[in-house]
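Team,

Forwarding the record for the chain on the shared tracking sheet. I've put the sequence and predicted structure together so nobody has to dig through attachments.
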Amino acid sequence: MGIKLGGTLREFARRTHQTAEDVQAKKNPVRIRGKYYLVSTLVLACAILFLPAVIQQLQDWHVAKPNVLIPKELWHVLYKQSSQPCAYGAAHQSGCTASPEEPSLWGSSTKRVDREHRSRVKTSPEFWLGAQIPASILQSARQVRANHLLLGWIRAPYRIWIDGHYLLEGGRQEVDPIVIPLPIERLAQSAPLYIAIEIMPDSEHPFPDFLNTGMGEEGFITHERAASYTTFISLVNRVRPFSIFIANALIACMFLVFWHAAKSKQEYFYMAIYALVNALAQAKYIDLIFSRMSPDTNVKFNIYMRFLEGSFAMLVGLSFARFRRVIFRWTIPISLALPTLMIIALHDSETKQLFRETMMGRITPALYVLGALACLVQAYYLQAQKTRGTYLPQRILRLTLLAVGLTGLALVNVILSGGIASMTEHIYWYRFAHLGLVCFLSSIVFTEYSEREKLIAKTPVSEYHRRDELPAQIKGIMLVADLKSSEPFYRYRAEHSDGENLVAIWRAHFYTAIMKQGGTVISKKGDEIIGFFDGDKSPHPILSALTAVDEMEQASGLLEEGFRSRGVYPAGAKGFHFRAALAEGAIKPVWEEMGVGAREAYWEEAGDTTPFVEASRLLEFERKLASKDKTTTLVVVQEALATRLLETQPALGPKFTARAHAASDKHGSRYSIAAYDPTASAEAAPLKTAALATFQPRYVIGTGERTLT
């Protein structure tokens, strides 16, 4: 039963597995557009269903102002303790500051709006805040049914009495505003409403009686507006910080994954760190954390994270502009250490608060602008290279957009810190704008990544052309190979138009041999192949090139056997034998413009070397050394190159069938050349010097049989 079940499962898997047609269908433009339409339809449906409700709610939140205001001038302050401890019912208690019959608070000449109030709070271990609300304001509140007293926040331990009756107490850890419902009958009375608040400030918070400052001020609101306002504050203090924290953390993780896959793209790394800094900066606003963080720690954390935000925003710009590594080597430790020194140098809480505002409004935006300027300078430099073969319009556009995004973030910081936006707008949009611009910057990077992947997929160029900055030169060994007597193969291809292209198959195996030894195929046209072996990648690029020749000679023999056995070998062909030459020198990758929006990878000689010319001349000398029947494969190198190779690889000596052979090109230039025969053995190689060792290369082609894999 088990065997039958296993066979059934295998058959089911085989029949349900996608076919080659299924794979091709994935690339069908119609199907791709259909998937985009599906996503767009779902997004549009959600927008139609939910957006009106969200807009309506946003309109309600924007009105945080009470229905009936309590004038600021009504708030009196008394900077001393109560003469007598106030009881829960202190309406008629003599000596209790909260009692309506005690005139010390209600008749105090000091008011909360006084300029010296803030400085006096710092030196007062306890103070009272009170307001005597006249009956006229109460009547106005009753007319609109605004029977909820909105006070806001008190950032210190406090106790509240209304008309001399104790109502509640709390502390600075509270997240929700103080909203006290009152009986509607109380608003109908002709007697004033007495509000007394006992506050015990600590040295860490400079504004203990913050109340509802900047959020519409204090006053009376309806039940509906109280519910809307409470929902708004819940969004600000609970939903918003946690959501933005998660969003930034996910963006950071995505960029870390991209950077891990392409470590040379350091802008991905700095985008990840920048998003992570934004996540941490927002995390402290989550109510569970904020309520347990002391005001002094809160200010220090704000200063530190603000500096890190600006610093890593600048590093994003510098990394995207490809600034040198030495700048990052010094910038990162300075960015981590400097804010610590700033915090140590700041002593009192008010100075820290002022410095935090300066950090947000000036220093952080300045760092953003520096990152933007770095991108603009690089964009200008690339624009100036338009006539030098390295013009990259897409990269110029990316740099410009990134500069615009960083500048936008700088403006957001200035607007939110400069009082240009209202407190309600500040609280609501704070970090939402940052997240939006982070996503904007991310889209630039992701677009670049997408374009890069498309370019790699559609353009089989070398890894050097895929780099963002093309190297000035690559030093190494150039291998030029040319198939001998290729006419029968081309004639066979012409006569059998629906048959295999034997030369193309031979070339494909040569590509594999070159790349297997760490080389790069830089040119392929007809029956000629040019490969290059980078000296920085291989300690012995000459040996790598000759090893590729050895492997290709073996592969050529196997290809001939395979084609003969299948009856597809052309008559008159003498085998897949080739001539080759090695030349030492330097080349550089360039892009050649092929028209509007099109370019092609190309290679040029670099420095004072001419490897293309030298290899071509050496290839001509092969005809003077090879047998006339063209059934041999020889590699021609300059004698100096052969001598240098044999100093480190003496076992290759028997493979050189000619040494120090004098030759002249058509211009009369004289050369001393050597010939390398990949088919030669130690016994058959007549050397002018004694063989130092025998060399028997080993090849693994196929598995057991002489067939190519």
